[in-house]
């Protein structure tokens, strides 16, 4: 087996974000790391919308990012710390729209190791040096400078190692133009490692250490070191240094040390200031629980600065420092606003705050005010004795605030993110859909959601109105060439034409010069200010003064089809003749003296737009009934001569020539494509050679069941093609590459572009007798999301086999369910405690829920209607139980009646794993599945993490034990058990009497149930231990699984073993067989192995295209959706594998990781080709493309076609 | 092996141990080995974004808290060392 891995949706989680002027222009941009992918975002300060500029896979794991700017420079660079053992400086090149690697310095081994730097990055604020640090010991300092030609240079590294020191955080100190200094938060473990009494451990000091880079001596010295709070976790740079022009200081310099419950201002030879982190005054708060800061941002404005710190609850605090020159007078903290917990915060100069959420959607907020003059309580270090440092070991009295809705920030934009996907199913549930949808359970805690993803572009409807009749075509037109917006809508009916004018309202107009008594074939704004209407009897050329020049079709003949552009008109007559008109310099439409007889009825015509600076488009495409398309010259030298011919498989229904930029073919100029739609719903796309007029590089695609209609439109001021069949498709350029994506829209009969003041980039279409105006807001997004909120983190969901509902279990650790919270509050009230209702009634989806101690759970079973995205019913679990598994089981003992079995556990602790008691709850479906009735609960000794129906009974994985249960009156009855599994059973699959058991640590076991002897036996397992997270039984002997470290693999059992096991009726043979390698008697063989870089949460074997082959679709925790496609032939494998090898050598990773080593992170890649790497072939420079193609004995077009074909036939994407 | 060679081999080994924290040697105790294993694992968890998210979801804590607690635990992941035998 050979597989081709392709990512359908790249990870959407943001692990870090940095802000800077990366393109060197005035505007600020944000670079975000998606873990394995870098993306450049550009927020538009006017509209407040965030647009993606580029995104590229780095084939490595990004661990840290930092932006820096050389002194006096205008452009920021990005430094990337990754698992490559290399430091990389990236420059965004706006010309080629790519990240260019300026420097790559190797310092250590690859991999995310303890003592190899890459985890932390700190830059000097003046851009003179950078420190890169590991989790322990290693810190390297690089000096950044310019050479004579103003190029960025990097020095060899200087070591600032400290043995046996665990590094918590590092930051660059702002010291102005003095020697660059870095602050590190370190703990030394050498003493506590030696002290058996544990005293040294208890007294271990967390040190704040300054490392100074002496630029004169070119080495790093430990300048200062002082103990700070033992629960410090984060350092924040405080501005400092003198302003160049005056003697004034920008700030006091030093750092803010964020500790549990406190913020300390700290600097060498300066008094400390300490303030408490204000807490929410919640009646149920756990007084023992500390509060830490998880992300921070400092912002400098003219002559002032402030900090925004975010606590782990999501509350933002504004911290200000009052200082006189270098002396700090006070540190003040106050509550600012509450936003989702962020992995990174970025403040933009244009007044925006970018919040890269650690889970769920990301947000862009606009600052409304800076919280300066509100009555929010402010806590200052001056109100405590010795600035809060009188007793550094004792906490300050707790400070409280009252959370409230947003006051200082306003939401500007939201970036959808699937992160984390916890479970997913691919199914086709929508009526009228021929492709399946992805149903995903996403999110964490109260911001969780259930989302349906559909392949296609989202369409936003602006207007929809009914028309008196059924039109067969619609156009819009400007009146003059330089009009910004369209003025008329022209609707053609069977027996007439209706003209509407676009103004404040849309209304019918009469005096436009258009013929209203006949249907229309084409409308064009022609020349400078004239309009043109083609109708079956002739052509009307309406001049600006409303004079009409009319050309009439010869008697007995009529016009059947027409094509136009700004200067040319071609019509086909019913006698299969072509008549050609061209606009002369006076604006007169002149007929070419000859007519061209085609010999077969003309069905479709197309002439492209006039190329810029040219008189005419020299080619015309003519599609005839004899199943051919001919390219005909319109050049004055050879007018109406046939240049080339292409045979088709069906009569054409529509042709469209358009110039579209596709960087895979031509980097700088648009390519002329001839798109031919056939009556059988197939689209052919060919490239027209601009010199010879030959058609090359044909690609085909099935669009739908109806004859195709093709229309040239504009998207984001670029030409695009709309293809209408039973589905509507858009062919457009995004980030310089061509995309072909369906629109999520009902079938359209005709469409045209529509531009008005309120809807500048819209489309107008007709569907039956309705006229619809719509726009496409998010180009480039291939999956449209519809979502519905959930209460707690979703765990798993399953569909009901008969009705269309989904049953989803959700649960959160350290959370009081609403019932428990209400009960506890009542208790407090009865004790006479005053309770502030405002705090309790804060919406949890914004503020989260109050953290409870470990062992407290809240959980629900939710019934979802996935088509209407609504919750049908919620059954909350009492008794401090949380649901971990569920299955719909047809119990044979009850005549196959379906029951829902939910595996729950009471008072579960995660570490060490324990619970008071596990339960199997058996429910009966009521109201056709919309309700559940609890029949009974069966106690178990451990958490049942996996349940599954099996031969009319239930099989459950309870801790280490696999058991089969049958239904009884009061309980489920245990029938058989096998307790010899490695650690914990997390996954179950079955076929026949075989059960595949996924173990938490020990990979997948093959077990069999032998009914005659009532035995459950393990007969095969994996030779490698694996932390399995998702398993899919591909066939009777094959299993595909994903593990916790981001690998997917396929294992297969030997056919002989499989048969032998099945032939043994009692299982006695297996029972007495000798174990192999301290495990089962047989081992599965690994067929494929691949590191996808994201933790796989579900795998499913499914066909993504109607009638297509089945592929393995997987989802990843960080929001990845990908697939593994089996190759059909050995030739394909050889070809793609060779291509991969060439691309690998031509396209080095942006973070300096070796792609092959990355894909073989834990186990060498086996029999899987990295499609994401292969697809970067399209972005390679033309020279390299053709060199690689030459090595493969193909043309560039053939290679690209093969890649596209692999993607399209497997996924339709 | 000449005594001189043995001497250089030893210094090289010492050098390696000083340079690569966590490298084992013949006299490694169970406690030391386990502590190294745990520290390596904890550092690896903090270094892999997906594992951070995974733990954060399971524990229902923020990623920042998980990273902090993991780093804190690196100080003494397996409790205090066993008392040394006097002889």
TrEMBL record, chain A:
Protein's cellular compartments: Nucleus
Primary localisation category: nucleus
UniProt xrefs under Pfam families: Beta-prop_RSE1_1st (PF10433), Beta-prop_RSE1_2nd (PF23726), CPSF_A (PF03178)
Function: Involved in pre-mRNA splicing and cell cycle control.
UniProt domain RSE1/DDB1/CPSF1 C-terminal: residue ranges: 858-1178
GO BP, one annotated term: mRNA processing
UniProt xrefs under InterPro entries: Beta-prop_RSE1/DDB1/CPSF1_1st, Beta-prop_RSE1/DDB1/CPSF1_2nd, RSE1/DDB1/CFT1, RSE1/DDB1/CPSF1_C, WD40/YVTN_repeat-like_dom_sf, WD40_repeat_dom_sf
Gene3D superfamilies documented for this protein: YVTN repeat-like/Quinoprotein amine dehydrogenase (2.130.10.10)
Subunit annotation: Associated with the spliceosome.
Domain of life, source organism: Eukaryota
RSE1/DDB1/CPSF1 first beta-propeller domain ranges (all copies): 13-373
Gene Ontology cellular component list: spliceosomal complex
Alphabetical keyword list: mRNA processing, mRNA splicing, Nucleus, Spliceosome
Nucleus listed as a keyword: yes
Residues in RSE1/DDB1/CPSF1 second beta-propeller domain copies: 460-776
Family from the record: Belongs to the RSE1 family.
Gene Ontology molecular functions: nucleic acid binding
Protein name: Pre-mRNA-splicing factor RSE1
From TrEMBL, chain B:
One term under GO cellular component: U2 snRNP
GO terms for biological process, alphabetical: mRNA splicing, via spliceosome
InterPro entries found in the cross-reference section: SF3b5/RDS3-10, Splicing_factor_3B_subunit_5
Stated family: Belongs to the SF3B5 family.
Name of this chain's protein: Splicing factor subunit
Originating organism: Heliocybe sulcata
Species lineage: Eukaryota, Fungi, Dikarya, Basidiomycota, Agaricomycotina
